[in-house]
Write a structure and sequence with these properties.
Radius of gyration: 17 Å
Largest sheet: 4 strands, parallel
Number of domains: 2
CATH architecture of the largest domain: 3-Layer(aba) Sandwich
Strand order of the largest sheet: 2-1-3-4
Order of helices and strands: HHEHEEHEH
Number of helices: 5
Distance between the termini: 21 Å
Strand content: 5-15%
Number of strands: 4
Oligomer: single chain
CATH class of the largest domain: Alpha Beta
CATH superfamily of the largest domain: BRCT domain
Length: 142
Amino acid sequence: MEYTFPYRKDNFLYFITHLLLNVQRRYYKAYHTTNENINVTDILTEIHTGILKNTVILFSRIFPLNAKPEEQPEWYRVKQLGGKCTTQLGLNVTHLISKQYKPTRKMKYAKKNQIPLVNEQWLNCSLIYWRKLEIKTFLLSR
């Protein structure tokens, strides 16, 4: 499958600039507060693990049927970005990720409870751009 970015390629520089300014702001805020040497790696880790904070992902039709979800790369990516994954339907689910729209039990539940149905590029692009991206570009068409 060919991977395409839904954003213009020149927007990547904007996102990187935003990230670096965020790192700089946090660095000097911490430095002026503690007057200690601050590790930029710690700041980057804090930003990275906060991207999907307060996000609970339910996957549908992403993993092979016989696979353990917690061993799949998409599951790992969500955890890496500070989000949580679940295999259970529930009101705590904030996003349902799938390759395509099919009227499965999970998708019907998500639609009924107004949980956004997004494609897997939303997760991949959020990882690449270091921010939780708006879902409108990644919504599954019904």
